[in-house]
Amino acid sequence: MRFVKYHALGNDYIVWDPAKAGEELSASQMRLLCHRNYGVGSDGVLVGPLETSGDVFSVRIFNPDGSEAEKSGNGLRIFSRYLWDQGMVRDKPFTIGTLGGEVRAQVHKGGKDVTLDMGTLSFDSTLIPVEGPPREVINETILVEGEELRFCAATVGNPHCVILRDELSAEETKKWGPLIEVDPRFPNRTNVQFAKILDRGNIQIEIWERGAGYTLASGTSSCAAAGVAHKLGLCDPRVSVHMPGGTIDIAISAEFMISMRGPVTRVAEGTISRELFTQQLLED
Fold first, then answer.
1. CATH code for position 180
2. Where would I find the H helices in the chain?
3. Are 108 and 141 part of one and the same domain?
4. Which of 62, 85, 215, 270 is the right S-S partner for 45, CB 3.0 to 4.6 Å?
5. Largest Cα–Cα distance in the chain?
6. Has residue 284 been placed in a domain?
């Protein structure tokens, strides 16, 4: 059972190509594979390519808890690099199909840098989704452990809750992120970003990722946070998003079409022992 591992700014994924691995994975097997102590260790699993048609490739994206994600910016950059490494794509743009919609991708620098056209960022509560009447979810309040926080919600194919802060910390993100993720107003749970505006062209974020936890970097989180900052008039259409793992560059059109560019690093490839899947995690 072959696998390849990559990271994008410290956000790491295992690519599980069914044609090379020889079999599919169950949710419990994915949890073992992603476990930092009992498995290979990863922030998720990319299963694909599942279908190809010309320059269109499909992929399924799984979180380390075994749940399926609609879209992942870092994951899709990694999947693009995998397609490049396999000789399935070259310099021309190509399309990746996901649960959260199609993404247009282009690989640069011999696979080490990838641009993605992520689609349109929306603040529509019915699309994100967020409970309550149909509206744009802008500058609403959420109460977390007695603290009233102001947030905006958005989707670029998966749900995000962006909270502006004067100062950021990993400790605060780990404390409040898991509570906001499962707040009842977000029926599909949500990714959470705490954001600080640095200037018109730069923001800083800390990330709690739905189904994965505290994360060093996130592509869709960068899209959502930059889009919110621009929507509020705090940043220009081109924004560099600074995260603990590094920086992603975001471009926002007048219609809130989002393009992102960032690096990818190949980490390892190898063979999974079947003995790995004979274990049982305590949480199972």
1. 3.10.310.10
2. 18-21, 27-34, 73-85, 170-181, 219-231
3. no
4. 62
5. 54
6. no
**Going by C-beta distance under 8 Å and a sequence separation of 6 or more, which residues neighbour residue 282?**
none
Per-residue pLDDT tens, the chain, 284 aa: give them.
Answer: 899 999 999 999 999 999 988 888 999 999 999 999 999 999 999 999 998 888 999 999 999 999 999 999 999 999 999 999 999 999 899 999 999 999 999 999 999 999 999 999 999 999 999 999 999 999 999 999 999 999 999 999 999 999 999 999 999 999 999 999 999 999 999 999 999 999 999 999 999 999 999 999 999 999 999 999 999 999 999 999 999 999 999 999 999 999 999 999 999 999 999 999 998 876 66
Instruction: Give the residue numbers spanning the domain of 159.
Output: 120-260
Do residue 132 and residue 234 come from a single domain? yes
Task: Tally Cβ neighbours within 10 Å of residue 32.
Answer: 21
219: nearest Cα among 195, 241, 197, 244:
241
Has residue 244 been placed in a domain?
Answer: yes
Asked if residue 84 lies in contact with residue 90, where contact means CB atoms within 8 angstroms, the answer is: yes
Q: What is the pLDDT of residue 284?
A: 61
Alpha-carbon gap, residue 33 to 24, rounded angstroms: 13
One domain for residues 269 and 243: no
Among all chains, which residue has been given the structure tokens 């600074």?
242
Please report, for residues 8, 21, 245, 262, the alpha-carbon distance to residue 218 in angstroms, rounded to integers and kept in the order given. Answer: 8, 26, 9, 11
Residues 143 and 241 in one domain: yes
Q: Are residues 128 and 100 in the same domain?
A: no
What does the pLDDT read at residue 282? Answer: 63
Tell whether 283 is covered by a domain: no
Whether residue 190 sits in one domain with residue 255? yes
Instruction: Say yes or no: 96 and 151 in one domain.
Output: no
pTM of the predicted model, to two decimals? 0.93
Q: Do 106 and 127 lie in a common domain?
A: no
Dihedral sign of CA atoms 95, 18, 63, 10 in order: negative
